[in-house]
């Protein structure tokens, strides 16, 4: 039995995490949840959206599933996600982007993975004002760049993939992105059997829209990886389908790529697939591969039934109807 930290989050978080819990019960997954609260609901009591007991639970259990948590825009507390990544050194953000057969989307053959550096770049949040100017400091280190490059190439090798594409803006940011490219080239030399290429980030954005099938594993600094993974999610039907994992040396947190969507919270129409696909990554991480495949197959069958799908997928259903349809393919 594995003990996994469960953070329901806020907005639609509690609704979609409860779907995962119920579906895991039907799977008979050997997982015991340790539920801890974070986000807007705990600020009044603890003075922070991320109390120490959340960090302690994750450190103790080594694995967590996290619902989305609201990040104030332009003011207030720092992002809970960024803080977790920094405190737990979750240096790799893994975001698989794979088409679901049966969904009516413009692309049906997308199968790529964004490997995003997760701890530095502009997300260090180093900002200051000088008179009428506002400045942000972008930090790229050799250590972090080498680690994420190694992670990308090892992922390709361990998952029978073929190519790594390093994304950069070194034509303009010659020192910072130049350092990042030096590290990806060094890793590429250590894996001569793996195809390696480099793309400038603006060109990469266009290429993903024109020819997503040409790409396999994309490794990128923090900001580029964040933007490109959202763009790629649009190719397969939206953020409601995009899973993610934050992985460190001995700790991993799994979460959907999308936000907390407070505008649809408590309306019963939240799409649970992104978090369910994240939970599939969690099962694989724990080597519960048969259960992961069973859930993946159930989701693939479910999306063929448009009437049960949530409105963001063009359906007339709701969270409950999607959950029930998935469970029907597990029984």
What can you tell me about this protein's structure?
The chain is α/β, with parallel strands linked by helices and 331 residues long. The protein has two domains: 1-98 and 238-331, Isopropylmalate Dehydrogenase, CATH 3.40.718; 106-236, 3-Layer(aba) Sandwich (Isopropylmalate Dehydrogenase). Helices cover 40% and strands 22% of the residues. It is built from eleven helices and twelve strands. It has helices at 13-27, 43-46, 52-61, 80-87, 142-158, 176-190, 201-210, 222-236, 273-285, 289-302, 319-328, and strands spanning 2-7, 31-35, 63-66, 92-98, 111-117, 121-130, 133-139, 163-168, 195-200, 217-220, 243-247, 252-256. It has a ten-stranded mixed beta sheet with strand order 2-1-3-12-11-4-5-10-8-9, with helices on both faces. Strands 6-7 form a two-stranded antiparallel ribbon. Helix 6 links the parallel strand 8 and strand 9. Helix 1 packs parallel to helix 11 (319-328). The chain is globular, with a radius of gyration of 20 Å. The chain starts with a strand and ends with a helix. The model has no long low-confidence stretch (mean pLDDT 93).
